[in-house]
Amino acid sequence: MKTFALPALFVLLAADIAAQGVYVCVQPNGVREYRNTGDIRGCRRLATEALSAIPAPSSVTQAKADPAFPRIDSQVQKRRDQDRMQILLDEVRAEENKLADLRKDYQNGEPERQGNERNYAKYQERVALMKDEIVRTEKNIEALKREISNLK
């Protein structure tokens, strides 16, 4: 009997708190505080709606059994996959061209100094940014090639 009394008490307390509502109280310094009681001056009750939950399907197989689940024709999917492959190949080609240009400008870590780089620290900062951009572009190419290999 005691094992059922404690959970029942918690349920009754939760229902009581929900019935009281939610209040927003604005402190004198302008900070908002949300409470379950409106006993402080400057508090107003928020209009809240009852929460409702709609359960999701328990598994993907249940969704596939649903007649309203969209089906895609195999030819349509094949065209979509080909389009995706072409887009990825174009992106790889563009990234490789970008990498070639970056490496050409980088000149193995010794790019030409620009007129506004009399200060050596500015030059080093630009070289570091160029190196970071090269590394980022190489990682982009690797990721794109991984994605292409997943399609095959």
Over all CA atoms, what is the radius of gyration? Answer: 31 Å
The fraction of residues assigned to DSSP E strands is 5-15%
Q: Average pLDDT across residues?
A: 80
Helix content: 55-70%
Q: Domain count, please report it.
A: 2
Instruction: Characterize the biggest β-sheet.
Output: 3 strands, antiparallel
Shape: flat
Question: In terms of structural class, how would the helical and strand content be classed?
Answer: mainly alpha
Total of DSSP H or I helical runs spanning 4+ residues: 4
User: What series of H and E elements makes up the topology?
Assistant: HEEEHHH
Uncertain runs are none
Walkthrough of the structure:
The protein is mainly alpha-helical and 152 residues long. The protein folds into 2 domains: 36 residues, no CATH class; 78 residues. Helices cover 59% and strands 7% of the residues. It has 4 helices and 3 strands; from the N terminus they run H-E-E-E-H-H-H. Strands 2-1-3 form a 3-stranded antiparallel sheet, with no helix packed on it. Helix 3 runs antiparallel to helix 4. The longest helix has 33 residues.
Task: List key phrases describing it.
152 residues, mainly alpha, 2 domains, three-stranded antiparallel beta sheet, 4 helices, 7% strand
Concise overview:
The chain has helices at residues 2-20, 60-65, 74-106, 120-151; strands at residues 23-26, 32-35, 43-45. The protein has 152 residues and is mainly alpha-helical. The radius of gyration is 31 Å and the shape is flat.
